[in-house]
DNA sequence: AAGACCTCCAACCGCTGTCGT
DNA sequence: GACGACAGCGGTTGGAGGTCT
């Protein structure tokens, strides 16, 4: 099931995502949000197309993604919704927090399509964090990312009854909060001032919880979400600012230092 | 033991909808 | 209204891993 890595004619990488690419994407989205999927890979240092980054993030890397077998309740809900609205996978996915449309679609075709769930025939959910499928190939790094994401997810889910957590992913709120108004690819050099102004109006981005649902209910603070990334070294403090791309992160670093969570 | 076949799912592809100009 | 850019959606595919013979 792992696609062989390859490159298209534009030199963009295709196929399975590596742990390093996952790290870069997580790092970037955690820092800057997904303000523009098309431009994101360039700024994140990824040789991927924007669509691929979006898919990877939405289906596997975003913090509240649920992995593993579908429960009977979820199966029942999928069946009911499919009966009423058909193959509207994204709409169905919105009713199953943490499940991606892709996952539901696959589950439907593999288990539910023929009338009844046979998901019980799957003794153990496969490794959904698809950087390495073979168990013997799984590196410590993979395990670290898995546990990292589990921790990040746990932090969010702990504070949120899962059924009350709507889609899309909470972290995408970052982009809507911080960068959605910046259509320019070069938002960062001007956005600091803009953002600073918006934070004055909307509170302090770096100290206020930022993972919110549509109703504005707090899901997870920046600290809760980013700390595990930090501890595993997936997010590294920037070197002294020599690139304004690091400014937003620098503010976060300052905040962490101020709260004694980061030794600079 | 090993080859054939099957299952499942990550990822790709192409299309559509939305928004800004 | 026309056009382009972009995000999102749903169908399809590739292929690893499991099961069968």
Automatic annotation (TrEMBL):
Domain of life: Eukaryota
Region entry Disordered, spans: 100-135
Record carries keyword Transmembrane helix: no
Comp. bias intervals (Low complexity): 111-122
Residue span, HTH myb-type domain: 9-61, 62-116
Matching Pfam families: Myb_DNA-binding
Gene Ontology terms: cellular component: nucleus
Myb-like domain mapped to chain residues: 9-61, 62-112
Subcellular localization(s) per the UniProt record: Nucleus
GO MF, one example: DNA binding
Entry keyword annotation includes Protein biosynthesis: no
Chief subcellular location: nucleus
Record keywords, A-Z: DNA-binding, Nucleus, Repeat
Official protein name in the record: Uncharacterized protein
């Amino acid at each position: 099931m792992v696609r062989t890595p390859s490159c298209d004619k534009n030199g963009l990488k295709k196929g399975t995502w590596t742990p390093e690419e996952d790290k870069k994407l997580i790092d970037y989205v955690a820092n800057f949000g997904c303000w523009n999927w098309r431009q994101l890979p360039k700024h994140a240092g990824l040789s991927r197309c924007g669509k691929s980054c979006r898919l990877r993030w939405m289906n596997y890397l975003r913090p509240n993604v649920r992995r593993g077998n579908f429960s009977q309740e979820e199966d029942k809900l999928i069946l009911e919704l499919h009966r009423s609205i058909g193959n509207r996978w994204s709409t169905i996915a919105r009713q199953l927090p943490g499940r991606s449309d892709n996952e539901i679609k696959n589950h439907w075709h593999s288990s539910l399509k023929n009338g009844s769930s046979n998901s019980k025939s799957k003794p153990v959910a496969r490794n959904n964090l698809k950087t390495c499928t073979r168990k013997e190939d799984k590196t410590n790094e993979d395990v670290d990312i898995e546990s990292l994401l589990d921790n990040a997810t746990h932090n969010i889910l702990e504070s949120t009854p899962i059924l009350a957590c709507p889609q899309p992913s909470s972290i995408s709120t970052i982009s809507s909060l911080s960068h959605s108004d910046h259509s320019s690819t070069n938002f960062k050099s001007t956005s600091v001032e803009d953002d600073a102004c918006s934070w004055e109006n909307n509170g302090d981005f770096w100290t206020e919880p930022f993972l919110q649902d549509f109703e504005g209910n707090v899901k997870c603070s920046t600290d809760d979400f980013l700390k595990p990334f930090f501890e595993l070294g997936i997010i590294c403090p920037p070197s002294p600012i020599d690139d304004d791309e690091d400014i937003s992160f620098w503010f976060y670093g300052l905040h962490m230092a101020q709260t004694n969570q980061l030794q600079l």
